[in-house]
Design goal:
The structure holds two protein chains of two kinds. In chain A, helix 1 packs antiparallel against helix 2. Chain A has one domain. Helix content of chain A is 76%, strand content 0%. Chain A is mainly alpha-helical. The longest helix of chain B has 30 residues. Chain B has one domain: Hydantoin permease. The chains are: A mainly alpha, B mainly alpha. At the A-B interface, helix 1 and helix 2 of A face helix 8 and helix 14 of B.
Chain lengths: 54, 466
């Protein structure tokens, strides 16, 4: 369970920074970027408390 | 008894307050990296970056000044604070009590608590700009000093009340959220800058520097009512914005847990993520707003973040503001409680939060944050000089270390005069226009150190004769 949560957390971090990078590179529009960043934020706060010690 | 037990469970661990930290409690390097990275990526960073632009700073001045100033801040922690912390291993307050006496520490706590309250007030202001987005309230402008609408007052009141209640009853929960949120927050702060840069028309990394000079940090005239910032302003601001913590020695309480003094290099994580990348990102956000809506000079972190990255950005402002206001309100409560030890921690924290909330209604503190932060460091700095001199130089200059403890006096007048006279002199010089507040801390430190040496020699000799 913890391992899955950890994978989700790292995917969420990628989902936080990759959409802005893709937007900067002209490969994503701003609304898509905002949507993915929100999904990543929800995923981060749902998964990280399950494995982060303190 | 039951009340006492529950209170202890809800409070952060406050150990070894009146004894040196034993070896079994010492911490490794990574503890300090994480702590500083999280603490210095706060909601108020979103105020500071835009205020640099409002001060007409140029690109080389802001990048060079932040690099040099943050380096000097790290070196101050490494060479001034940490060496004393790992040798004495005592809290700032206990060390001050030994040097200055109980009554003078009480006065110091009062000053410290009031400054913490105002700082927490600025954090409440930042959060209210985010919460207010959903209610379409009239928000304060760059030059507003007083509350400008009933909606604003109500929003601050609700945010401040929530933060206060949580600081009093759920400190640990917010502290845990702060730890969890830190890596995500850092990335969102970076995202602000990336997105705003693209919105400004920067389409590749190679275009960044020339367009940064032309569009972001243009080095033009400052906005009305702002001082013009140069490399030196930025460098001294970056160095001294945490003056109370390093030169002022407040972080003796943190580094007393460090196994080695060099662990203080971990502060670089906070300085270069929070006070370099986050400030630059926030600057770019503001430049984009000025570019897209010329004449809109409002510095409102909530709308700035929302326009760049949407709801995730607003969430980041709220989390960053909340997680840093929480320990700030708590620390202010601790400082006040030291004055009145019998008061309940809950009541003191609620009182402190109420003060911070009232302060947060006045946008003057947040909109003049650069000046307030400089003043905050200045107020607490002289006591840092007193501790430094007392620890390293007392024997060399022929006076007694930890004089209050050894003589039993409630006030060490040498320390009191060094503190009050230095502060009064610095403020007088600033008010007479002799020097701007960003620079006065450096000569002020040497003045406080010299005064403490001279007064200690004079007053201790006098008491021996008596």
């Amino acid at each position: 369970m913890k391992r899955v949560a950890r994978v989700v957390s790292f995917a969420a971090l990628a989902g936080t920074i990759l959409p802005p990078v893709l937007f900067f590179a002209g490969m994503a529009d701003i609304e898509t970027m905002k949507r993915w960043m929100l999904i990543a934020a929800i995923a981060w706060f749902a998964a990280t408390p399950l494995w982060m010690r303190k | 008894m039951a009340d006492d037990t529950s209170r202890k469970q809800d409070e952060p661990v406050e150990e070894f307050e009146r004894e040196p930290v034993p070896e079994r409690a010492w911490l490794g390097f990574s503890s300090f990296v994480g702590q500083y990275a999280g603490e210095h990526t706060a909601g108020t960073e979103l105020m500071i970056g835009p205020l640099f632009i409002a001060s007409g700073v140029s690109a080389p001045a802001v990048v060079g000044g932040l690099f040099a100033g943050n380096l000097l801040a790290v070196l101050s922690w490494v060479f001034l604070t940490a060496p004393i912390a790992v040798r004495a291993r005592m809290t700032l307050y206990f060390q001050l009590e030994k040097i200055c006496g109980r009554r003078l520490v009480t006065a110091y706590n009062l000053a410290n608590g009031v400054m913490f309250c105002f700082l927490a007030g600025a954090m409440v202001t930042v959060n209210a700009t985010a919460a207010g987005l959903w209610f379409d309230i009239a928000m304060p402008g760059l030059n507003d000093l007083y509350p400008n609408s009933a909606g604003w007052v109500a929003t601050v009141l609700v945010m401040g009340a929530l933060m206060t209640i949580v600081a009093a009853y759920g400190y640990k929960v917010v502290a845990r959220i702060a730890n969890i949120a830190a890596p995500w927050m850092v990335l969102v702060f970076i995202a602000y800058g990336i997105v705003a840069a693209r919105q400004l028309g920067i389409e590749s990394v190679g275009e960044f520097w020339p367009k940064a000079q032309a569009l972001i940090w243009t080095g033009g005239a400052p906005l009305a009512g702002r001082a013009k910032f140069t490399f030196w302003h930025v460098m001294f601001f970056a160095w001294f914005c945490n003056m109370a913590m390093h030169v002022g020695m407040a972080d003796l309480s943190v580094f007393r847990y460090a196994r080695k003094s060099w662990y203080a290099v971990g502060t670089a994580a906070g300085m270069y993520l929070g006070h370099f990348i986050a400030w630059l990102s926030a600057s770019i956000l503001y430049a984009q707003q000025l570019h897209a809506t010329p004449g809109n000079t409002d510095v409102l972190p909530g709308p700035l973040a929302y326009n760049a990255v949407g709801i995730a950005g607003v969430l980041c402002v709220i989390v960053a503001g909340w997680t840093t206001a929480n320990p700030t309100i708590y620390r202010a409560g601790l400082a006040f409680q030291a004055i009145s030890p019998r008061s309940s921690r809950y009541r003191v924290t609620l009182f402190t939060g109420a003060l911070a909330t009232v302060a947060g209604m006045f946008p003057a503190i947040a909109m003049k944050l650069l000046d307030f932060v400089a003043l905050y460091g200045l107020v607490l700095m002289p006591m840092g000089a007193v501790i430094f001199v007392d620890f390293w130089l007392a024997g060399k200059f022929g006076f007694e270390r930890n004089y209050a403890e050894k003589s039993g006096v409630p006030i060490n007048w040498a320390a009191a005069i060094a503190w009050v006279a230095t502060l009064a002199a610095c403020l007088a010089v600033v008010n007479m226009g002799g020097m701007q507040i960003y620079f006065i801390g450096l000569p002020g430190w040497f003045a406080a150190a010299a005064l403490y040496i001279v007064m200690s020699r004079v007053l201790q000799r006098k008491e021996v004769r008596l």
